[in-house]
Amino acid sequence: MLTISQVSEKTGLTPYTIRYYEKIGVLHEPKRSNGGARVYKESEVSYIQCLNKLKKLGLSLEEITEFTREGCVMDKIQQGENPSNYNPTLKKRIEILEKHLMGLESRRQEINYMISLAEEKLTLYQELTKEDIVNTR
Q1: Which key words are in the record (predicted)?
Q2: Burial class for 108, CB neighbours closer than 10 Å (0-12, 13-18, 19+)
Q3: Could you tell me which residues are beta bridge partners of residue 85?
C-alpha cells in the first residue's frame, strides 16, 4: 500500500490533483488507513498513470471521466476478459479519440501555417541583413 505522497512521486501528479480527481469523480476514493490517510494499491497507481496519460493527450476531464467510466478496460482484456464484453465502451472511447484527433490535426495545420510564415519572415530578414552588409562595404 502506498501513501498519496508516494503515488504523487510515481505518477508526477501533485497530491492536490489526486484529491481533486477524487472529488470530481474521475478517480474513486481509495481506502483509508486506521489514521484516516489515503492508501493506494499498485493497481490504483496504474489507473492514475492511465489518467495522467489521457490528460497529457489533451483530453478534458469530462472526456477522461467518460473514457474511464468502465475502468481500465485494457487491463481487464489483458487479464483474459472477452473484448466483446466492452464493445459499447470501446466504441465510446474510439469516438472520443477520433474527435480529439480531428482537433489535433486542425491545430497541426494551424501550426504548420505559422511555421511557414515564420520561415518566410526569417528568410526575408536574413536577405535584408545580407544586403545591408554588402551595401556597407
Answers
A1: DNA-binding
A2: exposed
A3: none
- Residue 25, classed as helix, strand or coil, is coil
Angstrom distances, CA of residue 1 to CA of 42, 67, 92: 7, 26, 33
Three cell numbers at 46? 496504474
For range 77-86, the mean pLDDT: 88
Task: Give the whole-angstrom CA distance, residue 28 versus residue 131.
Answer: 65
Cell numbers linked to 107: 491545430
Look at residues 15, 113, 115, 101 and name the one whose alpha carbon lies nearest to residue 58.
101
CB 86 within 8 A of CB 73: yes
Joined grid coordinates for residue 5: 505522497
The string of pLDDT tens digits covering residues 8-39 is 999 999 999 999 999 988 888 899 999 889 99
pTM of the model: 0.68
